[in-house]
Amino acid sequence: MGSDESVPWRRLHPASLLVNLIPTAWRTLQRVWPLLLAMVFSKSITGLVDLILVASFFALAAVRTVLHFATLRYRFAHGRLEIQQGLISRVEQALDPARIQNVSLEQNVFHRMAGLVELRIEMAGAGSAPVDGMLSALSIPEAEALRKALGRTGAAVDAQAADVDVIDAVGLLEVVGYGVSAGRVGAAVVAIGLFLDVANQVSPGALPVQNLGRHSWAGLMLVALAGGYTLSAGGAILRFYRFRWWQSGGDFHFESGLLTRRRMDIPIRKLQLVQITEPIVRRAMGFATMLFETAAAAVPEAGGSAEALVPMVAREDVVSRVRAAFPRLDTPIDGDLLPCAPRAVGRAVLRGVLGWLGPAAGAAFWFGTPWAWLLLGLGGGMGMLDARRQGWRVTERFIVVRRGFLSRDTWVLPREKVQSVHWVQGPIARAAGLARLVVWFPGGRLPLPEIGEVEARALFASLRPTG
To answer: Where are the domains positioned within the chain?
Structure first.
């Protein structure tokens, strides 16, 4: 690829029309399925109205797909990736490779059938929007050439090559364990409720919910639990099937997926933070989950989600995996951490009790006062355990923070990534002589535990960026 005005503009592969239309139609179906149900069961003019609405949604999806193919052009020129698209509203982008955080390739079933791939690029900056799906259907050689032009060394290297360091591979049983240990039953409970409601609407009296006994309700709850864990395990298999993670040169490579196969390349120098998550069930199994953050993805603590996630890592291997990301790590990340201030434990107990006031009031109304006191005690106890498991350490090069009891999280942040430090101290904390520091870095923030005010001032002075 050249770098002057003579470089021609390129277009998506012609097969992208079909490859993109099918997933777009599926996403549209997911949005309009209530209208489809209403159309099927309606016997009045509203059924025709619903049909027209559904048809218009699918027509708009088809038009967007056609316009995307017809108007999108791209090239690598002048040392950057240039992208143009749009018919009425024209959008042009020039992406500097130096600011690109993540480059990934995705292949769903239809991509693989057509021999194509989707190239995704995520830029630096918490407020920058990723170019997700912008180059949605390229030939594999074209995508590899473009990744090489963007400075992704070893982009064509495979994990099976002899000169790469395969860090980890996650087996099927471990993937299922990840899904089960993150099982969410809420969706299954809602699904059972919807099923019972629809069944009684279609055939009144077929399922007399109001007459169900304790054993029947217990059976339904067991079904909900089993369904929730099954859905969670199935989702984990779809996302992390044949997960592999390896290092080649200065890049990490992550590859996984059953139906949609995703390959991501992250330069190690772009890593902002590593998070180790250990839910209590996963911890009992001897595993942890690791998330690798760049400036393109907000930290979960700030409400974002990580892009590069290793679902299961043996706990004894966690330190070596962190050192692979941060070779200059100069601090323990597990045992030898400083605790929060003793007075902060009492505040955590109070917050735990206050957080359970609503459930305790409901328990007192339905089951009696003893249950309310039990819930308040449980909330206070959980607050105390969470506070006692908090830890932190700041060294010359790194900041380590740990929090949580039922789900333990540890964050490892290089000090060179720190952009600003905020002092947080409410009136109650001020009266107790406590303070909290919040460290901000590209892509997110990291709150430290509450510590004594004098110690916090000294730490604030040492962390505050200078120059």
So the answer is: 16-149, 182-233, 271-340+390-463, 342-386
